């Protein structure tokens, strides 16, 4: 029995699909301890948009550590935090005409979500939050309450309350007008719907199966929230930081959410970090009312700042991500068309892509076949029926071609059986 099987909890998951001990990682490659290379189309579940051990970010981190820069500082003022805030304002917020203040919650995406939910309730005095079918917002109790996946929800062990799910875009395949059910419940005093403090939404549902909301649907949601004085929270934990093309995944819709949750690739290098962005008028916290010991991991501030300076001073990464995403999307469409009897569906936006297969069992077999050929990708969706692709945004054209060939071969090998 390996030390992992002996001591590590049964809750581990990714290691079950990829039974190898990894040792090194560079760019879009992970290497087993025996030197075997694996093309990484997982990218730390979206935490490594700039690749493994990005040399520019690594150098900034090494320089900071070498000069004994502050590592842990709670919410104290530091040079690293000042540099991050100034760079975030200069490179991201001001060019997009976004007026947000910044909360530093705990270092994970669920922490950013919890801060947003907690603040929305404090601001409005209301308890209920609207979430959407197939949503995933994190594994803490508040975040789980607005998550759709029944398996993850069941792990809570207590009732998950004060949240009401509504149908996501295309949940009814376009049979009913957008928000027909939601708005009717809001306007009907006999509906039994508690008046919501906020709506929380992912513009592309990653864990939910790479379900991409249309820009018109997102605009309609923002307008509905404004009409009914409901706060709009966009969970951009996985789809932010350029995953769909623009820095924020909601930019194409032209909306300005009341709150935005960021984590994963906001730290740039894979170091733990999260931010909750809020409109200034919502900043009604009392000092220390929301805190956490590791809300000030300064090495992550350093790599986050360097990532913003390096990749978001112009629109080159955005254009590259859109182009690469279109290439992958077209290839997945081609694979789907090659097996009309299987009913495959290509999904996604930018470099968040997926191939929906007939079942979770088949999708798992496709991912296993890809692993055997040296490619890492995971499944998602309510039944794990989607093979999900999240390569680093810095993936090369040659690596995309290599990955697509492996996916094609893997689908062929599974469906042939």
From TrEMBL:
Keywords: Aminotransferase, Antibiotic biosynthesis, Pyridoxal phosphate, Transferase
A GO BP entry: antibiotic biosynthetic process
PROSITE patterns: AA_TRANSFER_CLASS_3
Biological pathway: Amine and polyamine biosynthesis; ectoine biosynthesis; L-ectoine from L-aspartate 4-semialdehyde: step 1/3
InterPro entries linked to this entry: Aminotrans_3, Aminotrans_3_PPA_site, Dat, Ectoine_EctB, PyrdxlP-dep_Trfase, PyrdxlP-dep_Trfase_major, PyrdxlP-dep_Trfase_small
Record GO terms (molecular function): diaminobutyrate-2-oxoglutarate transaminase activity; diaminobutyrate-pyruvate transaminase activity; pyridoxal phosphate binding
Cofactors (names): pyridoxal 5'-phosphate
Superkingdom of this protein's organism: Bacteria
Enzyme class: transferase
Family: Belongs to the class-III pyridoxal-phosphate-dependent aminotransferase family.
Protein name in UniProt: Diaminobutyrate--2-oxoglutarate transaminase
Lineage of the species this protein comes from: Bacteria, Bacillati, Actinomycetota, Actinomycetes, Pseudonocardiales
């Amino acid at each position: 029995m390996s030390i992992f099987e002996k001591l590590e909890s049964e809750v581990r998951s990714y290691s079950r699909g990829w039974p190898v001990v990894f040792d090194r990682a560079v760019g879009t490659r992970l290497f087993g301890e025996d030197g075997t290379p694996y093309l990484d189309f997982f990218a730390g579940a979206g935490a490594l948009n700039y690749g493994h051990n990005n040399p520019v970010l690594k150098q900034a981190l090494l320089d900071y550590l070498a000069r004994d820069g502050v590592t842990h500082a709670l919410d104290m003022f530091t040079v690293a935090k000042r540099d991050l805030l100034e760079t975030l304002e200069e490179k991201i917020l001001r060019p997009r005409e976004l007026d947000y203040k910044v909360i530093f919650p705990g270092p994970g995406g669920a922490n950013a979500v919890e801060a947003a939910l907690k603040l929305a309730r404090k601001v409005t005095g209301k308890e209920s939050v609207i979430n959407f079918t197939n949503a995933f917002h994190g594994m803490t109790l508040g975040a789980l309450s607005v998550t759709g996946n029944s398996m993850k929800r069941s792990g809570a062990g207590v009732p998950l309350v004060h949240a009401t799910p509504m149908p996501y875009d295309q949940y009814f395949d376009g049979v009913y007008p957008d928000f027909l059910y939601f708005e009717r419940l809001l306007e009907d005093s006999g509906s039994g719907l508690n008046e919501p403090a906020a709506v929380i939404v992912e513009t592309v549902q990653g864990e939910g199966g790479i379900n991409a909301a249309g820009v018109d649907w997102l605009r309609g949601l923002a307008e509905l929230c404004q009409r009914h004085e409901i706060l709009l929270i966009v969970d951009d934990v996985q789809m932010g930081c350029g995953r769909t093309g623009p820095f924020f995944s909601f930019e194409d819709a032209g909306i300005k959410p009341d709150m935005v949750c960021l984590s994963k690739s906001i730290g740039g290098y894979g170091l733990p970090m999260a931010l909750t962005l809020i409109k200034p008028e919502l900043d009604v916290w009392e000092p220390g009312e929301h805190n956490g010991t590791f809300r000030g991991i300064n090495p992550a501030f350093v790599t986050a700042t360097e990532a913003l300076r390096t990749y978001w001073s112009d629109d080159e990464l955005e254009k590259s991500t859109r182009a690469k995403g279109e290439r992958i999307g077209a290839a997945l469409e081609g694979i789907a068309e090659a097996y009309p009897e299987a009913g495959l569906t290509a999904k996604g936006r930018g470099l968040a892509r997926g191939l929906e297969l007939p079942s979770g069992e088949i999708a798992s077999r496709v991912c296993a076949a890809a692993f055997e050929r040296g490619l890492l990708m995971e499944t998602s969706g309510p039944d794990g029926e989607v093979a999900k692709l999240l390569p680093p945004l810095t993936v090369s054209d040659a690596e995309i071609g290599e990955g697509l060939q492996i996916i094609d071969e893997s689908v062929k090998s599974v469906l042939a059986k």
